[in-house]
Amino acid sequence: MNWQLDEQIANELCENENIENITVKDIEKAILSETDISSFAPDGYFRIDPRDNHRIVYNSKRAKRPHDNKPKEVKPEEKPCVICKGTTTKILDKANLSKGYTFINKNLFPILFPFNHETNPSVNELSIDGAPSKGFHLLQWSSNLHEMDWHNMPVEDCTIVMQRLCQLEKSLLTQSNPEWPSNKDWGDEQDTRGFVSIIKNYGRLVGGSLVHGHQQIAYLNFMGKKSRDDLDFEKRHNTRFSSFMLKNNPADFMIKEYETATLVVPYFMRRPYDMFLLMKDTSKRWLFELNEQEVKDMAQGWQDAIQAILHIMPQIGREPAFNVTVHNGPGAGIYCEFLPYTQEWGGYEHQGVILCQDIPENVTENLKTFFAKNSAI
Ligand SMILES: [Zn+2]
Fold first, then answer.
1. 225 CA distance to ligand 1 centroid (A)?
2. CB of 10 within 8 A of CB of 141?
3. 84 C-alpha to center of ligand 1: Å?
């Protein structure tokens, strides 16, 4: 199929071409001006599971959003995707690739919305009422070409996609209003405000509702549990988690090394083929602090890990599906987790006993073999 979002339609949807030129306030206005988004606005609060500090954000309307990522036997894949048709929200950033372009727009079914709530809620983990949630939920489409994503785009184009992500993170964190929570409270020397959470879902089994390749960016007025875990690790051990991993993860579990990053299987692999991409300069907290070489290596690392996952999953009888999470913020040293859906989560996992049906030694060998063959081509 040759579906794509036609550039003329994209230009009509484009209300801003470069995210560097707008402030958080501008993005807020742009979101509020689209009534389609406000009709799918979330419920506007989060609650805390007091046992483990997980934040639960509610959007009771989100279940009704369209899905085109269902198996063919359930729904024949015939109608073009909503992104390629251009029946989507206005564009906030657009950058040319060697073929086509990448762009950022607003999520029509957001988990966060710029409500007129207080931005810096005092959060008590035992509060039954929870606290107001506020922010934005944006989407970055890797390419306007339906079939193109990290695994099959030229790595130079992947680097541009990563650069735009870094720039978006910078705009959100450094141009926000003074009433947003300051990260100085969490030990960030820079004047950043709010939190930016970046993920990728690929495949219907792990929450990807649309096939067209994309990343999700949430701008939040509270810190997610995993960022808090990174920060707590640093406080407990007086070292950042990424530093600990770079020093202590067994050398045999290193899969690929780059100038400024390293791709590893963690010694505590929870699911077969979990991988971490660790940036070697662990003093950096935010993507926008990465230099040109680091952005390039991060893009290459994403491409390598995703290619390996998509190659190996069918070989082990699994439908390709994975998540990527970016660990940035007050507790980083920056690292990314690649989490292929190689095994279901069962009752023991919910008890905190994780049963993993392969060992890091085996998967590391398979990954090294894949990369050896791949680089020989
Ligand atoms: Zn599409």
1. 32
2. no
3. 4
d(CA 51, CA 341): 26
Cα distances (angstroms) measured from residue 215 to each of 5, 91, 103, 309: 17, 15, 11, 17
pLDDT in tens, 113-129: 999 877 777 778 888 98
Report the separation in Å between the CA atom of 80 and the middle of ligand 1, taken as the mean of its atom positions. Answer: 7
HSE of 201 in the Cβ direction (CA atoms, 13 Å)?
A: 13
> Angle at the Cα of 349 (from 345 to 354), degrees rounded to 5?
105
Residues of the chain where predicted confidence (pLDDT) is lower than 50: 74, 76
pLDDT, one tens digit per residue, over 80-90 is 799 999 999 99
What is the distance between the alpha carbons of residues 179 and 254, in angstroms, rounded to a whole number? 43
Cα of 297 from ligand 1 centre, angstroms: 27
> Residue 284 is inside which H or E element, if any?
none
Name the β-bridge partners of 48. 55
Distance of CA 315 from the midpoint of ligand 1 (Å): 27
Nearest alpha carbon to residue 250 among 276, 285, 283, 271: 276
What's the confidence (pLDDT) of residue 155? 97
